[in-house]
Each structure stands twice: as structure tokens, then as C-alpha cells.
Design a protein that fits this description.
Length: 241
């Protein structure tokens, strides 16, 4: 995916995808949790309007039982992408047991309680939030040998995986929320801006929920993960080891 600086024309579809990638990584998707924090006079609660079971934060958006695909399908999609991309570069026989190896990884397990994150026991939830286990990187590296090929595979796989999440989870969620907003008379962005400014003049906005995904990691678990930075403008793709 080329950066905007490499082309003369931008693409609205790609712009939305890039925005999703960046906001997902920085825990800034406009969930109802965020909207209630920013516009408390408009959004009176932050419960998920699809399942009405939990607060709609970023983790819940990805794991809501009303999603068109469940978390197990997401995990299978990622593993299949990793195996497929690696096999095209490496010799087919060397990837024979790769699927089973990835399925057995603790860092890709699905926790019993998918609504929360545990800083001491990272899981597939963290991978959905764009954190890549070094163990996954090393498995691919073992198959294709070079870091250059491994970086390209990881890049391609997670770009496709984020597109998968955007297409099959986020877009459907946004459609449902927009319909709910229309039914409740919430549709004027200028009105939202006015209400937000009035709120900021009279109250102190809480910042407790505005931390990025990295803040959940303690010193021990940070060493276990490569952080996947979204490709935007001139930033490009980065790995923090």
C-alpha cells in the first residue's frame, strides 16, 4: 500500500482504512465509551446498542456477540493468512506443521473472558489490537530465513487482517450505530461540536480511557511483543523490538 506522498490522487476507501488502522492502534476508535466521554450531554450511556450487555469500548467492538464473525473466525483468518503468505515464499514442505504450531501458541489463545485484557497474560485480543508477538515473527523467520522476507510477510498479513476486521466488524457496527443515532435524533455534527465545547468549558474531561494500547503492557510483557505501527503518510511501517 503506497503512501499518499507517492501519488497525486487519494482514495476515500483507503483513507477510511488508514484512519481505522491508526485509531485502532491508538485506542481512539469512536466507540460509545469515547462518544459518551466527549459528548456526555448527547450520549447518556456507553452500553453497546447491539447486544446491550456491556460497555462498548474498543475490545468489546471486536468481541461483541452480535458481530457477523466471532473471535474464533478472526483467529483462524490470521493463522491462515500467515501460513499462506509464508508458504508462497518458503518451500511448501517447511510450512507443513506451521498451522498447528501457531494454533498452539499461548500468545494466540482466546481467553475465557474476551471482554477484558490482562497485562500479565497477553492473548489474541492484543493481536487484534495490532500487537504482534515476537514468537509469531520468529516462526515466520525460521521458515523464510531472511528478515527482509519476514518483514514483508508480516506487513502483508497484518494489512490484510486489519482490512478483514474493518470490513467484517467495524463497518457493520458503524451502520448499526448510525441507524441508532438517527432514531434518537443524533445526527448534527455541528451540534455535537457546540455541545462538546460547552462541556469542555465547564468540566474537566476524563483522560483515563484515552491511553493507547501500549499502556496495558507492563515491563515484562513489553519484551514479548513487536508493536505494529499503522502505515500512514511518511511514517511507514515500524517494529519496536
Amino acid at each position: 500500500m503506497l503512501s499518499y506522498i507517492d501519488r497525486n490522487v487519494t482514495d476515500n476507501k483507503e483513507t477510511r482504512q488508514r484512519a481505522f488502522n491508526v485509531k485502532l492502534f491508538n485506542n481512539e476508535l469512536p466507540t460509545l465509551e469515547k462518544l459518551k466521554d466527549r459528548f456526555p450531554k448527547i450520549y447518556e450511556n456507553d452500553s453497546c446498542i447491539r447486544c446491550n450487555l456491556e460497555k462498548e469500548d474498543q475490545v468489546h467492538v471486536l468481541t461483541c456477540p452480535k458481530n457477523l464473525i466471532d473471535i474464533h473466525s478472526c483467529r483462524n483468518k490470521l493463522i491462515n493468512l500467515l501460513v499462506s503468505k509464508t508458504t508462497t515464499v518458503a518451500c511448501g514442505d517447511t510450512c507443513k506443521n506451521m498451522c498447528k504450531t501457531l494454533e498452539a501458541l499461548k500468545k494466540l489463545h482466546i481467553p475465557r473472558d474476551v471482554s477484558t485484557r490482562d497485562a500479565d497474560h497477553l492473548s489474541f485480543i492484543d493481536v487484534m489490537l495490532e500487537l504482534i508477538p515476537i514468537t509469531v515473527y520468529d516462526i515466520v523467520l525460521q521458515k523464510v530465513v531472511t528478515h527482509e522476507s519476514t518483514n514483508q510477510i508480516i506487513d502483508d498479513v497484518f494489512n490484510q487482517f486489519k482490512l478483514f476486521l474493518h470490513t467484517h466488524i467495524w463497518k457493520d457496527r458503524c451502520t448499526a450505530v448510525k441507524k441508532w443515532e438517527t432514531e434518537n435524533g443524533i445526527s448534527n455534527n455541528k451540534w455535537k461540536k457546540k455541545v462538546r465545547n460547552e462541556t469542555l468549558d465547564t468540566t474537566v474531561t476524563s483522560q483515563t480511557n484515552n491511553t493507547d494500547n501500549n499502556s496495558v503492557l507492563n515491563n515484562t510483557t513489553q519484551d514479548l511483543y513487536i508493536i505494529m505501527l499503522s502505515k500512514i503518510a511518511v511514517i511507514g511501517l515500524g517494529y519496536i523490538k
